[in-house]
Amino acid sequence: MDINKEEYKKLVKRRAPKSPCLKNCCFAFLIGGGICVLGQAMFDFYRHFTNYTDESVYVCVTVTMIFLAALLTGLGVFDSIAKVAGAGTLVPVTGFANSVVSPAIDTKAEGLILGVGAKIFTVAGPVILYGILSGALYGVVLLVMNALE
């Protein structure tokens, strides 16, 4: 069977399963919102039961959410939630924690150095790199703007 690229694209489009976009968006919204509600509940808990400043409470919430996402990833639960929620789990800080822990779990059989150590940041590495670079650039822009005042 010899077909050109256009015929192949049409064939694939006909055979590909239709994505339930509205349902996926609703699940992403609800589960992502649930993660945010959990974060707000943690904020209220830490604020009520500790004498921390708001800035310290934000750090506690972030660390707790990262820990929970890493734990759930290690237990294999996070991936099941992410299959249903899609971007709802990837956008908050929980998605970043998952992107660090998943490669570490996948490569632990290769050893601590050549497996986990070498591949732990394969997904999160670019995010860290460009986050640091954009932060540094922003700092330089602010420095220049303040010097010009």
Which helices and strands, and how do they pair?
Layout: H1 5-15, H2 21-49, H3 54-74, H4 77-85, H5 87-90, H6 93-106, H7 112-119, H8 125-148
Helix pairs in contact: 2-3, 3-6, 6-7
Radius of gyration: 21 Å
The CA-CA distance between the termini, in Å, is 70 Å
Principal-axes shape call: extended
Q: Work out the strand percent.
A: under 5%
Low-confidence runs (pLDDT<50, min 5 residues)?
A: none
Helix percentage range: over 70%
Overall pLDDT: 88
| Count of runs of 4 or more consecutive helical residues | 8
- Largest sheet features: none
* Extended strand count: 0
Order of helices and strands: HHHHHHHH
Essential attributes:
single chain; 149 residues; mainly alpha; 8 helices; 81% helix; 0% strand; extended
What does this molecule look like?
- The chain has 149 residues and is mainly alpha-helical.
- 81% of the residues lie in helices and 0% in strands.
- The protein has 8 helices and no strands.
- It has helices spanning 5-15, 21-49, 54-74, 77-85, 87-90, 93-106, 112-119, 125-148.
